[in-house]
Design goal:
CATH architecture: Alpha-Beta Barrel
Number of domains: 1
CATH superfamily: Aldolase class I
Shape: globular
Number of strands: 9
CATH topology: TIM Barrel
Strand content: 5-15%
Distance between the termini: 41 Å
CATH class: Alpha Beta
Largest sheet: 9 strands, mixed
Structural class: alpha/beta
Strand order of the largest sheet: 1-2-3-4-5-6-7-8-9
Length: about 325
């Protein structure tokens, strides 16, 4: 089992950046010199789902361009306030799949652990924008109950840290969770779903790398990058440090209206990912969450885009187009 005494004191850099993220939609508009006509919608959307944009991500957005694909992902809009039939608070019915506090069990052989209720960036299309994180923030004793659930089911081979963003948790807590998982013989893999190495690349610090490189578990990190412009030199460097620590890095994207709903954008994303030694994994169609209908791209449009993309990319750079259907035994290919 991992010796957590090897973990060095957390670097304050990424935490300071997270605490200083832009959380006022009016400040976001001002900083990016956006037209004042966007202000009422920004305030309305923010009232339903708070704004959060770290400086490192903000710096990649083109000022005075309301159509910038990175801005579109983080700027609240008036469209979020409109009720649209079929778009609901819990589109994946996760409320029915929580056998213990902080744990979601959807699929055979793997479980999700809500390792942190906090995100470093609030993506406007997030399928968990209405998730009851207050009811899924376990105490240490409650984590032990969730871990007992894993011990009692020897079909579970993979633990997935999710959130929120699991890397928003402190490294001491994450190292403790990993140490507990290592004591469960049938757990073979740790998967971490995160945006933090993208939106605050300094999160990949010595403390994080210490416990990642020490574990016996095969470790996979699934990043969430939707557009090539999200990948700058700092992101590439962060990924290189993770890869050196033995972490396999994949990427999943969501196809989003006005962000990446073109063959050119998806092709550029796959090429840029591979330059950073990240393999494309999934391309999700939008989960129908309330407040995000303006991002929706129909299944037929998505299939057409992927068919054209396949003509331009080698197979190993093609993400799998999928939809998550509540109750299905796996992601459903489209």
């Amino acid at each position: 089992m991992q010796d957590t005494t090897l973990i060095v004191k957390d670097s304050a850099g990424w935490k300071r950046q997270l605490s200083r993220a832009v959380r006022d939609p009016l400040e976001l508009c001002r900083r990016l010199a956006l037209d004042e006509s966007l202000l009422p919608g920004a305030k309305g959307g923010h009232a339903l789902f708070e704004t959060c944009v770290p400086e490192a991500f903000l710096a990649r957005i083109t000022p005075a361009d309301a159509s910038d694909p990175l801005l579109r992902q983080v700027l609240p809009l008036s469209e979020e306030t409109r009720a649209v039939s079929g778009f609901i608070d819990d589109p994946l019915e996760e409320a029915e799949q929580r056998p213990a506090r902080g744990l979601i069990h959807k699929y055979h052989g793997r479980v999700l652990l809500i390792a942190s209720p906090t995100c470093a960036v609030n993506c406007r299309y997030c399928f968990r924008r209405h998730f009851p994180y207050a009811d899924n923030a376990p105490s240490r004793a409650q984590w032990l109950e969730a871990l007992d659930y894993l011990r009692d089911d020897d079909s579970i081979r993979e633990a997935i840290f999710s959130g929120g963003d699991p890397l928003a948790a402190n490294d001491k807590q994450l190292a403790w969770l990993v140490d507990e998982l290592e004591g469960i013989a049938h757990i073979k893999r740790l998967r971490i779903h995160t945006r933090l190495p993208v939106v605050i690349p300094d999160r990949v610090d010595d403390a994080l790398l210490a416990w990642l490189s020490a574990t016996r578990l095969q470790t996979v990190m699934v990043l969430h990058i939707n557009h090539a412009n999200e990948i700058d030199a700092a992101v590439v460097n962060a990924c290189a440090r993770l890869q050196k620590a033995g972490v396999t890095i994949l990427n999943q994207s969501v196809i989003l209206r006005g962000v990446n709903d073109s063959v050119a954008a998806l092709e550029a994303l796959s090429e840029r990912l591979f330059e950073a030694r990240i393999l494309p994994y999934y391309l999700h169609v939008l989960d129908p969450v309330a407040g995000a209908a303006h991002f929706d791209v129909s299944d037929d449009e998505a299939r057409e885009l992927v068919d054209k993309l396949r003509e331009r990319l080698p197979g190993f750079l093609m993400p799998r187009l999928v939809r998550e259907i509540p109750g299905a035994p796996s992601k459903t290919p489209l």
